[in-house]
Amino acid sequence: MNTYFKQLKKRSLYEDIASQMLGLISEGKYARGDRLPGEREMADLLGVNRSTLREALRVLEFMRVIEKRVGEGIFVIADDTSFGLETVIFRFMSEDGLDVDSLTDAYNAITVIEGVMAELAVRRMSPDEQGQLKDLLVRMEQAVETGESFTALDREFHLALNRASKSPVLMGIASTIWVMLERYAVVLFGSREIREKCGRDHQRIVSALEAGKDKECRRLVEDHFRWARQALFECEGI
């Protein structure tokens, strides 16, 4: 019987699960190349539902700590030296989130980094990657009405765009910042008006990508994150 995972004593947020899994890797319980238990078994071991577990797995996948392989399972692709900053963020960030100054800094940083990656993506993106982004646009449009899965789809969109940049260094930095901002997406996308605006922004970004307009794509992504920061602050009354 697998005894590595510990049941959480209260209903867990995905940050709690991800933090525990990062800890298992840093402690050497799981090493690069190891296969993790299946989703059902992992959810039972942690004492959470599978949808909550999947949120944590998405974050870890975004951080390039794990990788899902179709028909094979979930594998660790990071080692205990490759995600120190992410571990610090999970373990030391206040339960109430970032303070206003830190949140502003995080948005300022992600705005610049995502903009640069978008510009690179225009030059390096494959036709298959373009198709993936267009498919995500359709799925996001369908999710606007109810908001169901919209947050996860937004994350997938930016992950796909970032991967297309073929810049692992920038992706690593961006993934760390995304971990800090994840919890605020739920607040932001609670509004249908905001979901609609986000979808329109993404459509413009993809249009610029398809047209090969690298500078325009960068500007659109930077504007998108500036808008998201302002919209979040308004939602939070900051």
Give the N-terminus to C-terminus distance in angstroms: 49 Å
**Order of neighbouring strands in the sheet with most strands:** 1-2
The helix count comes to 10
CATH class of the largest domain: Mainly Alpha
CATH topology of the largest domain: Four Helix Bundle (Hemerythrin (Met), subunit A)
CATH architecture of the largest domain: Up-down Bundle
Number of strands: 2
- Tally of individual domains: 2
Main sheet summary: 2 strands, antiparallel
User: For the record, what is the CATH homologous superfamily label of the largest domain?
Assistant: GntR ligand-binding domain-like
What percent strand? under 5%
Helix fraction by DSSP (H/I, runs of at least 4): 55-70%
Class from helix and strand fractions: mainly alpha
Q: Specify Rg, calculated over alpha carbons.
A: 18 Å
Low-pLDDT stretches: 8-12
Order of helices and strands: HHHEEHHHHHHH
Describe it for me?
68% of the residues lie in helices and 3% in strands. It has 238 residues and is mostly helical. A two-stranded antiparallel sheet has the order 1-2. A hairpin with a 3-residue loop joins strand 1 and strand 2. The relative contact order is 0.12.
Which terms would index this structure?
single chain, 238 residues, mainly alpha, Arc Repressor Mutant, subunit A, Four Helix Bundle (Hemerythrin (Met), subunit A), two-stranded antiparallel sheet, 10 helices, 2 strands
Helix-strand layout with pairing:
Layout: H1 14-26, H2 39-46, H3 50-62, E1 66-69, E2 73-76, H4 84-92, H5 100-124, H6 127-143, H7 150-164, H8 168-188, H9 192-210, H10 214-236
Antiparallel strand pairs: 1-2
